[in-house]
Amino acid sequence: MKDFGTLVFGYAEMEAYLPENVYQKFLKIKNDEELLDKETADTIAKAMKEWAISKGATHYTHWFQPLTGSTAEKHDAFLDKKDDKAIMRFTGKSLIKGEPDASSFPSGGLRSTFEARGYTYWDYTSFVFIRDSVLCIPSVFVSYHGESLDKKGPLLKSCKVIDKKATELLHILGYEDVSKVTPMVGLEQEYFLVDRPLYKRRMDLMLTGRTLFGHAAPKGQEFDDHYFGAISSRVQSFMKDVNEELWKLGIYAKTEHNEVAPMQFELAPLFSDVNIAVDQNQLIMDILKRIAYKHGYACLLHEKPFDSINGSGKHNNYSLVSDTGINVFDVGKSDDEHLRFLLFTAAFIKGVDTYPELLRLSAANPGNDFRLGLNEAPPAIISVFLGDFVDEMIDSLDSEIKDAKKPESITPLIYVPKDATDRNRTSPVAFTGNKFEFRMLGSSASASFTNTVLNTLLSKELDEVITLLKGCDDIKKTAMDYIKDVFKKHERILFSKDGYSKEWVIEAKRRGLPNLSSSIETIATFDMSKNVSLLKDYGIFTDEEIKARKEVLISQYISSISLEVKTMLYMCESYIIPFMVKEISAYKAIETDSAFALKRKVKLTEYLDSLSLKLDDLREKYALITGEYSSLDEGLKFRSDIVPLLSDIKSVINDYEKIASKEIYTLPTYPEMLY
Ligand code: ADP
Ligand code: MG
Asked: What distance in angstroms lies between residue 437's CA and the mean position of ligand 1's atoms?
């Protein structure tokens, strides 16, 4: 633990390396109380450079989160020349602003090539850190005209909005000493480990992140024996290295345990300010991959690397905490605290019921299509679980509400908790004591947009509450009326039974809740007028930015499925078909009257022909659909025509694999990769 935070330029380092007055000024700048001036920036840059060099750093980079989903950086050396002498230089200007050659990052047409410049600006609300001798400066990424081209910019904007609204509402409720409210987030990260030599022999895993086919292992997860089971010593030594690396970066990696599926694990750091939590999650994903490499593993972050066993998600635990220590989702003890809790919770519920498409969109990526609604993750339907305690609290408010509640007791919907505590693991948005846990995110996703959406939809509802309460005669009564009204009108979003059941899908439809089962259908809802109004009204996106982001998402969807098509064709041509031919020839070569051998030969020939027909079909459909321009129509066709075909092809290969000779079928199989 002595190395904790040694690679972060945190408060203690700032205090040590900065003159006292500059340190105090920086704290004010960070709190939006003062603006950053050139002199202060120069002093901070110099201090950072000294600290970084003392840690062995030679380069610096603006570290940002473009729309690709990963992070980007371009290294510059501190080294410079002055009067023919080598010096180490790092100025305030280089700290504040960078100009990466950015023409290859997705922008959805916001940055046409003739105006290819993009700029990165230092985000001083996150911490500068060192990785591999490079000083990394968390930054936002914008176009020449100031449109945001990354995931951090919109999140920061939404944090400012929610801070303002939540603070204002707390003032109205009598908490006048509050001066700042911060979204706090804890992100649980699931992942798989696979032996690297095996991984390298599976082109599909390497290129697409998932196995495009593979017959289930004789033993799956039916015994639930992996969950919280003993961690093998090899994995343990991997986790130890991961933790050490994370601790150095000041990340409080706390829990780690086996997940439900074989070779699946989870890592959860302590919650923190959302901006930092999202940055740190990007680092965590990166470090998991790198340390896995060192230990002879490949770390898989894809949402569904293996069929027939659970996929991986990322849980986003969200709360709002004031600088005076109030968590607005804390139920509290006194009547006033209960009222505060119910007011914020009602606003949250109303927001979720008003913008479910946007929240669903924040979890939309092609990998997650294999997970949501498949009895291992929440369905694609957004609903909220409050738990008995809060339910009773609401019921006790007013008998009217109780009467208005729809009967939920349709028998097959009964939820039996897997653990003793009052928890519903099948709900996409679950209240868990003092926070809301959004469980829909895929494991590979950035949590940035989810929190941008949560902040923004809540800001809009808080705004309404503020208008209601401002200048009203009886704050308590008006607040209670609002709460009752919300729970009556938005009852449909509350659901506490089994979210995995088929019955819920039917029930949700009856309630009129959207069920966007694929990411491409969800992307189509991005620019629904209510979404556009919300995002524009609160200054998160402009019309152009929404259009651009939608375009980027569509083209990412298409690229991802295209890659699967190409990989499938390649693997079939280079491996599967030759395996089948070889196996058929082997049976042909033996002179025997054995009925079994004859039957087997026929079966294998059937598989071969069926596969080759399906591959022809795939080639044909793929050629028909793909155009030069990635449109929504094209994306929807990929979903309706190509995705099912890929799945059909998978079934044929899996059937073949079941009877294939291990001598001939040399690709690593599920049992080999998972045990
Ligand atoms: P589970 O697996 O039961 O969902 P974990 O303990 O693995 O729960 O993870 C819970 C996550 O929620 C952790 O990252 C934790 O730091 C975070 N968390 C706890 N309290 C809060 C809070 N008030 N606001 C945001 N996140 C929180
Ligand atoms: Mg969880």
From this structure: 8
